[in-house]
Amino acid sequence: MSRYSGIKVFLEGLTGNKGWKPAWREPEPKSHYDVIIIGGGGHGLSTAYYLSKVFGVRNVAVLEKGWLGSGNIGRNTTIIRSNYMLPGNEPFYEFSLKLWEGLEQDFNYNAMVSQRSILNLFHSDPQRDAFVRRANAMILAGADAELADEAQLRRELPFLDFDNARFPIKGGLYQRRGGTVRHDAVAWGYARGADQNGVDIIQNCEVTGFQIENGVCTGVETTKGAISGNKIAVCVAGSSGHVMAKAGMRLPIESHVLQAFVSEGLKPTLPGVITFGAGHFYVSQSDKGGLVFGGDIDGYNSYAQRGNLPVVEDVAEGGMAIMPMIGRARLLRSWGGIMDMSMDGSPFIDKTHIEGLYFNGGWCYGGFKATPASGYCYAHLLAKDEPHPVATEMRLDRFKRGHLIDEKGQGNQPNLH
Amino acid sequence: MIINHPLLGPRDAAEFVYLGDASLIDRPDPNADDAAEAFYEYGYLRDNPAGEHQELWYHEQGDRSWLVVTRNTVTHEITKVEIAREIAKSRGRSR
Predict the structure, then answer these.
(1) Rounded CA gap, A193 and A103, in Å?
(2) Across the interface, do B1 and A252 touch by the CB < 8 Å criterion?
(3) What DSSP designation does A16 have?
(4) Helix ranges, A238-308 (H)
(5) Contact call for B50 and A414, based on CB within 8 A
(6) Which of B1, B40, B74 has its CB closest to that of A303?
(7) What residues 332-361 of chain A have any CB closer than 8 A to a CB of chain B?
(8) Which residues of A touch B1 (CB under 8 A)?
(9) Based on C-alpha coordinates, what's the Rg of chain B?
(10) Calpha distance A222→A207 (Å, rounded)
(11) N-to-C CA span, chain A
(12) Which residue stretches of A264-337 are H helix?
């Protein structure tokens, strides 16, 4: 086990960079583990990391169908923030943002955590009132929030279309501690940290079924043979419905495709993340210079990891409505990821009715920012069999009990969240 | 995606609004003993298959008909389009 550091980079440079070792092993699965985590994405790897580091559970496997981090951890728009409102959500996301703030030192990996701020624009007086309310909820939960008026934004962001006839910009809600993170490095950092603690990360190993007897889950069938485990932790985001069906469970989730886009590289122009308040559009600028942006999900069930053109047009229109200057920038790439859209727009970190089978999912398109807290709280649940204090509301039975966490008040229509 | 409307021919999917799984046609009996459980499952639980999926689309910017579209969620290929009302009637609903 070697630590990464500036001195190490310097010494390796002097000796021809011959001393770098692979960041994690490629073990074959053992026949039994204390905990088997299904899904080697951001949430699965962070769960393994915190289980082995904080909760002392080290006989752990992470099973990944493809290659490590091949799903949504490498497909999102890299934004971190905790600007939620409801009591079941906001403390959780603020916990996550605090974990982001110490993450690189904690797992000794450069994830390029950049707290460059997030700004939610508002366009009318009623929307300002709603944002003031949200800001107060954030501050009550220990987060930071700051209201900016139009004059301030005109000074800071002169390129915005303030006098747009239909959606004039009247101000915005800043969260200065929000920002962006290099998403692939999050997966790699967590994988390396977990591996160093003894976790087996097994790639190209698809789970094909669960071993369930008398209501108890005792293991999984995989393309690399059967593996038994005391606790089986599903953490597969967009594939949740598909995987849990193998355990005979139906979920309050639909899988939808969300597209994201990046422009050609431009000179530094956007200081932080900016979101449109009258449509759905969010944009930041990567350190390479490309504008990274996205908007609504396509809106129909999909496992295809690619979307259709009407949403491309809609996202481009959203961008043009707030910053017409980007109209001349060329689109370099677009891609899609599969979102586990839940019935109230909020996630689940819970036991199931099958003993030994646990479920983490329903992240909609907000899973990236939640990666550290999702893993921490899931690890807490797996290690102690009780939810972490900030994740007590994220239960699978909340619809039956009537305790929904519906930030937007849209009801049980997943494509509207 | 192009949806081949049974009455109007091929139409752009952007003319439609998507509701979800076509099992929403089969509303549970509110007077049954297990109505609370049945409505919980009806309202909140979904099969969410990777593969063939029957789903409800509303032709909002067209003839305002509800359609049942059979579509593959992995490839987006549409293999069948039917009028939802006819399916509902064939299952014993009045409309």
Answers:
(1) 11
(2) no
(3) T
(4) 240-244
(5) no
(6) B74
(7) 343
(8) 308
(9) 14
(10) 4
(11) 44
(12) 309-322
The CA radius of gyration of chain A, in Å to the nearest whole number, is 22
**Half-sphere exposure of residue A342, counting CA atoms within 13 Å on the CB side?**
27
> CA torsion angle for A383, A79, A77, A38 (degrees, to 10)?
0
- For residue A313, give the chain B residue with the closest CA: B14
Give the position of tokens 């009028």.
B83
CB nearest to A304's CB, from B19, B40, B74? B74
Q: What are phi and psi of A245, to 5 degrees?
A: -60, -30
Please tell me the distance from the alpha carbon of residue B15 to that of residue A248, in angstroms, as a whole number: 36
The residues in B 62-91 lying below 8 A from A, measured between CB atoms, are: 71, 73-76
Q: Contact at 8 Å (CB) between A236 and A64?
A: no
Structure tokens at A224: 């690399």
pLDDT tens per residue, range A276-319: 999 999 999 999 999 999 999 999 999 999 999 999 999 999 99
Q: Which amino acid is at A3?
A: R
For chain A, helix (H) and strand (E) counts, in that order, are: 10, 18
Residue A345 gets the label, from left (phi > 0), alpha (psi -120 to 50) or beta, of left
Q: Could you tell me if A121 and A277 are in contact, meaning their C-beta atoms sit under 8 angstroms apart?
A: yes
Shortest CA distance from B57: residue in chain A: A300
Secondary structure (DSSP) of A215-251 = TEEEEEEETTEEEEEEEEEE--GGGHHHHHGGGT--B
Asked if B6 reaches chain A (Cβ–Cβ under 8 Å), the answer is no
What's the mean pLDDT in A132-149? Answer: 97
User: Would the ipTM clear 0.90, i.e. be above it?
Assistant: yes
User: Closest Cα of chain A to B71: distance in Å?
Assistant: 9
Structure tokens at A188: 């790699």
Q: Tokens standing for A93?
A: 């996301």
* A193's tokens: 């940290």
Cα–Cα dist A289/A286, whole Å: 5
Judged by a CB distance cut-off of 8 A, whether residue B50 touches chain A is yes
Is the pLDDT score of A396 beyond 80? yes
Q: In whole angstroms, give the CA distance from residue B82 to residue A136.
A: 50
**pLDDT band for position A93 (cuts 50, 70, 90):** very high
Taking CB atoms and an 8 Å cutoff, what residues of chain A touch B45? 250-252
Name the packing angle between helices A183-196 and A42-53 (round to 10°): 30
Cβ-in-10-Å burial (0-12, 13-18, 19+) of A43 comes to: buried
Rounded to whole angstroms, how far apart are CA atoms A332 and A264? 5
